[in-house]
Amino acid sequence: MRDVTAAIVAFNQDRQARFLPNKYTLMASSPFRFYRGSCHLFYQDLVGAQTWQDPTRAWICGDLHVENFGTYRGRNRLVYFDLNDFDEAALAPVTWEISRFISSVYLLGHQLNINTAELTLIAFSLMESYLQAIHMGKAFVLEREHSSGILKTLMHAANTTNNKAFYQARIAPNSKRQPTLLTNDKKYFAIKPTAFKHALIAAFEQHLNQYADDLGQFKVYDVVIRVAGTGSVGLKRYMFLVYHHQQQQLLFFDIKQAKPSSLKPYLSLPQPTWTSEAERIHTIQHDCAYMLPAWYSDFQFQGDDYIVKETQPEESKMNFALCQGKPKKLWRACHDMVRLMAYAQLRSSARGLTNSSDELQAFANDHAAWQMHLIDYSQQYYHQVLQDYQHFCHDVPSLIDNLNSNTTKSRKK
């Protein structure tokens, strides 16, 4: 049997060690959070256990689970709900994306006290929704006016969000002349040394103004280290406080380090030659999304690649606590997501090395050859994750102690 903890440690060896205790603590908080933080394990297992044939080629998000959807404002300032994390994006078979998503539904349902039999019915119904969307052959967008259930609640909240509270929670008090960002040594950390911080501010300000309509439109006031998500914890990540002269308002920008996709070791399909990992993420999300988040771009600094986007008060995710013990509500929420997955595949079809929409439809028409295998695997993998989670939780205390000890020794040196 493979050593789950050793595989996780090996994967994270190039991440920032000071933040790995945070990541491992989050992963130990629930089986679903463990799944979110171990995307590499999913594909390591899938390539050795896939029981169906899938010759398709599509741009996939790579880490598609129910928490990788959310609301955001596009550059046109309208609010959208869509796939929102393409760090692991690659050219891969469509069923890899479907299986990872369905497995996440099982794990979320387990957390919501929904039994396996009901979750399997949801899985079959979601498959039907996906196939119907592919058969339509047209990529739509989910509109607030036609949404329902908890998605409707979410999109309404995104359009009526309290901007003042959003800013107050991130800007230090008594810093009106030159506003600065709050640090709390939990999610936001001060940057040292000062010379690095000043160089980062100067480079990012230059980057933003290259994309502005008029030069000098942006002024960067401050930057802090940001820790967010689960799988991305340990990557270099920063939040900037920026003044937009034309709009006469403060904006927040998030930049996250772009690393090779965790699918890379397991892909047999030839991949495009990218100039950087940020270009890979940016290009695939551009092809899959109906609308990119505002000010989306890629940025390079001191040898590292980053994905840039505005951090907005409208950003939010579904409140799955409302589905506690309610399989129908969970189905309705995930039904919208699985349609968006299909739309992303259709929207990006026949781009580069991907299949055409006709070829995707032909594969969907042959679903009897693979659908049952995929759902069986997703259910079995859900149980595998529960076992892996228990092994990992057993090892976490000593793992974190070792990390903290090594960090202390490094500081003393």
**C-alpha geometry:** globular
| Oligomerization state | single chain
Regions with little confidence, pLDDT below 50 for 5+ residues: none
Class derived from helix and strand content: alpha+beta
What is this structure, in a nutshell?
With 413 residues, the protein is an alpha+beta fold.
Report on this structure.
It comes from Vitreoscilla massiliensis. It holds the Pfam family DUF2252. The protein is α+β, with helices and mostly antiparallel strands and 413 residues long. The protein has one domain (4-412). Helices cover 46% and strands 14% of the residues. It contains 13 helices and 10 strands. A hairpin with a 4-residue loop joins strand 7 (237-244) and strand 8 (249-257). The longest helix has 42 residues, at 371-412. The two termini are 39 Å apart.
Question: Mind sketching the topology for me?
Answer:
Blueprint: H1 4-11, H2 20-27, H3 31-36, H4 39-49, E1 58-60, E2 69-73, E3 79-83, E4 90-92, H5 94-111, H6 116-136, H7 149-159, H8 163-168, E5 188-189, H9 194-211, E6 218-226, E7 237-244, E8 249-257, H10 277-288, E9 297-301, E10 304-311, H11 327-347, H12 357-365, H13 371-412
Antiparallel strand pairs: 1-4, 2-3, 5-6, 6-7, 7-8, 8-10, 9-10
Helix pairs in contact: 2-13, 5-6, 5-11, 5-13, 6-11
